UniProtKB/TrEMBL annotation:
It comes from the Eukaryota. Its cofactor is FMN; FAD. This is Cyanocobalamin reductase / alkylcobalamin dealkylase. One of its GO terms (biological process) is cobalamin metabolic process. InterPro entries: MMACHC. CDD domains: MMACHC-like (cd12959). Its EC number is 1.16.1.6, 2.5.1.151. GO terms for cellular component: cytoplasm. GO terms for molecular function: cobalamin binding; cyanocobalamin reductase (cyanide-eliminating) (NADP+) activity; demethylase activity; FAD binding. Keywords: Cobalamin, Cobalt, Cytoplasm, FAD, Flavoprotein, FMN, NADP, Oxidoreductase. It is found in: Cytoplasm. It comes from Bambusicola thoracicus. Belongs to the MMACHC family.
């Protein structure tokens, strides 16, 4: 069942520049405190959805051109919401729950922890402070970051697709690729991500096979309120 679902998802989302990776809800819940658990049985089938560098041209630009007059919030969020919600149409006999990376609960917690989901699904390795043996940061708060074996840091985790009626007790877990295995590189990665994230150097901690285009880098480095202009949506900046 998982293979059939995955094949349909790849067929629908792959051409748009998205990647999907399967996991069991229990793998995710097992590494988190109860407050962060997803409210589904352990064997429930889920997929984490990543946007790759090609999503900008394959999904966002066509979406903006087609839906120009309907874009009222962040164009990327609206584009992702449109395409992930459309997945329900290819599973008319299945219940599909969708969670987006930008959604928060009334408690102000995110609906799901994106980087944890990517790690347990084997999509990207979540490097954290505990992965560095000789910790140089003392009392400083250090945030972790996911690195993809193909895209380095040039990708984003966009959402979850959950299939509450599909139980996959035999699904085998694949470990994410540890592509930043050297201690000094892990230290450098967390240093760059926490203290120099604006310049994006952490994204190139490994040699990425595909990176954001110059247009895309400009877009994501521009303050959100000014991004409409870059997509030709001038009527929203007035």
């Amino acid at each position: 069942m998982e293979e059939r679902v995955a094949e349909r998802l790849h067929g629908a989302l792959g051409p748009l520049g998205f990647e999907v990776h399967a996991f069991k809800v229990g793998w995710y819940n097992a590494v988190l405190q109860p407050a962060f658990h997803l409210p589904y049985p352990d064997d429930t089938l889920a997929f984490v959805v990543l946007s790759t560098p090609s999503m900008f041209d394959k999904a966002l630009k066509p979406f903006v051109n087609k839906e120009r007059l309907k874009i009222i919030r962040d164009p990327v969020d609206q584009c992702v919401s449109h395409h992930l919600s459309s997945v329900k149409e290819i599973f008319p006999d299945q219940k599909v729950d969708v969670m987006f990376d930008y959604e928060i609960l009334p408690s102000r917690r995110p609906k799901f922890l994106a980087q944890t989901a990517a790690h347990v699904a084997g999509a990207a390795y979540y490097y954290q402070r505990k992965d560095v043996k000789l910790d140089p940061w003392g009392e400083k708060k250090i945030f972790g970051v996911c690195i993809h074996p193909k895209y380095g840091g040039w990708f984003a985790i966009r959402g979850l697709l959950l299939f509450p009626d599909v139980q996959v007790p035999l699904l085998e877990q694949s470990a994410p690729v540890d592509c930043v295995s050297a201690e000094e590189k892990r230290t450098e990665l967390l240093e760059l991500f926490n203290f120099h994230w604006q310049d994006g150097r952490y994204r190139d901690i490994i040699e990425a096979k595909e990176r954001y285009s110059e247009d895309q880098k400009t877009y994501f480095s521009t303050p959100p309120a000014e991004r409409f202009r870059l997509l030709g949506l001038t009527h929203f900046t007035e």
